[in-house]
Amino acid sequence: MPNRSSLVERIVPYRWVLEPALGVVLFLAWLITGLPFEFQSVLALTFYSAAVAISRVLPPLSLGMLWLAVLTEATETVSMPMPFRVISTVAVLIAVFSIAAHAGNVVRWLDFASAILIAPMLAYLFTVRGELKFPLIGPVIGGYYTSQGVGLLLMSLLLAVTFVAGWLLGFLVARQRATGAAGDAGAADHSVLVWLASSGGTPVSASDPNRTGLVRRLTGRQLTFDIAGAVLFAVFCLPLDSAGLFGVGGDGGARSAIVVVIGFTVAVAVRRISPAVALAIAWLTAVLQMTTGHSIQFSDVGILIVLYATAAYGDRIVRWSGLISAGLGAVVAALYLSLTAALNQSYLDLLSGAISRLALEFVFLVVVSVTVLGLSWVLGLLMRTWRNARVSRRAQVVAEFDRARAVEDVVVEQERTRIARDMHDVVAHSLAVVIAQADGARYARHADPDSVDEALKTIASTARSALGDVRVLLAELRHSQPEGPQPSLDDLDRTVEQVRAAGLDVTVERIGGYGILGSAQQIAAYRIVQEALTNALRHGDTSQPATVVIAEVATGDGGTGDGGPGVAITVRNTMKTVTIDTPSSGALPRIGHGLPGMRERASLAGGSLAAGPAGSDFLVSAFLPAGEKA
């Protein structure tokens, strides 16, 4: 792979040689085939080759050369053989593609108009002045049979479709190149077409942000599946179409039928890699099928597959191109089938009553073709919509989970900050007591020696309590100033009365004392009970009473597995009957600030907390270990 990348980088500056080389190849093909060496034909082919050669670096001049070549060929007095017409058609197709890929907006749309206008001129040279003749049937108008006019119209339509398909590929190449230039510099190298066309020409702007690009990335499994499916498609179609089981008109024969099968097989193989390329190949193959006189073949199912792919995998332009192709293809197919049937049955006579039958047959074929082709495109669009909806649902669920995790992280961080603020006053008070007792003992040492021992005991007790608080807050940072004295379990009665006044009957039961708790545990216990009662008031059934039990226990789980003494807190309230949405419905239950905050308080105080439904009740159970004693 590194060697390949290095080779590609060395070739990049020489991509401008591609178009001149193609021009030389076209001129050599004319010499090798031994075509007549006439001045006007040589001049026309020179213009064709020059138009191809300079289409990358000078698109406007190339378009002018292309028109000079067509006009020179149209005004020649000697009718050129079919190989010359084929070479000129290939030159027009290459030039139209390259000009669309490298020109600016104005020249690009002039190129589109030229593709449509040149088609009937070349069709005239193919049919009226060339070797491609149609049966002489119908009345004579202006020296030409009606069948000749119909053949000219059909050939013009086929060539116009071919040139427009080439123009569309060139336009998509230019757009993809603009995407690579505006964003990922290596994006263009993912496509051979874009890589070949990624230098030279007028810069183009990336004006459409909603696009998938000319070439899509596929996994190895998807690529293998597409290739294997295309091979099976070819294996199934080749015996049927080469044997002419579905009808072969004219003298196309089995060889041309095989070429048609191969063309549709390639289109099916690349339908997901590049829906635009697949659509262009399908159109060119369909044109080949009609120009070689074939009727409906089993391989035409490939057209339905490609139309489905344009709607399911193509970007906005490719998707609408597929819809236009379905409508235009229905008209072309109906016109081709009805006219070939009329020519084969020799009833193309405008003066007879058969024209009404031909018109009815044409309308019927248009309706059937539009229904079949349009249905394939609509199925692809429905699949695209379903796929986008599924991706959107997955993204929504992921976003909801991410939001929930982010909210919980914010809640935890906010709770840490609040705990640090709450404990600031406790630690400051403890240090102030220690300093005051030490200063008093130092001054009273001579007058009252006994008071020194009492002061030292007070200092030791206060210091131990403060040490326990500092250990709890060791990893915390204080972000704001204290707002006043911090509450403890002694202030719980006031909170209970406030909750009762709000409409929730609360029963408080105290078992034992809670003097064994340190200052940090006291505040944590108060905040846990306060938050649990607040949640019961907001989310519970206020018609049923809530109970609070604060019990001193000799052994418990302090979060460290030591099983030491502490205080167990239990808050129980009745839940409301509600329907909780699940992630499968596209919604998640809202995560509030209460439960994460209570858990964080209990954890930082050295304890633990569990909260959740218990039958028809909601139960909050917490354990806070005893603080250090003097």
Task: Give an account of the 3D structure.
By secondary structure, the protein is α+β, with helices and mostly antiparallel strands. It has 18 helices and 7 strands. It has helices at 2-11, 18-32, 39-53, 59-74, 82-102, 105-127, 146-182, 192-196, 220-242, 253-269, 275-291, 301-313, 316-345, 354-444, 450-472, 492-501, 519-539, 594-604; strands at 140-141, 144-145, 506-511, 546-553, 566-574, 608-614, 617-625. The two termini are 73 Å apart.
Q: Which range does the strand content fall in?
A: 5-15%
Q: Quick one: how many beta strands?
A: 7
Q: Distance N terminus to C terminus?
A: 73 Å
The number of helices is: 18
Shape: elongated
Helix content, binned percent: 55-70%
Instruction: Give the structural class.
Output: alpha+beta
Radius of gyration, taken over Cα atoms and rounded to an integer in Å? 43 Å
The strand line-up of the biggest sheet is 3-4-5-7-6
Largest sheet properties: 5 strands, mixed
Sequence of secondary-structure elements: HHHHHHEEHHHHHHHHHHEHEEHEE
- Average pLDDT over all residues: 76
Low-confidence stretches: 181-190, 199-212, 245-252, 475-482, 580-592
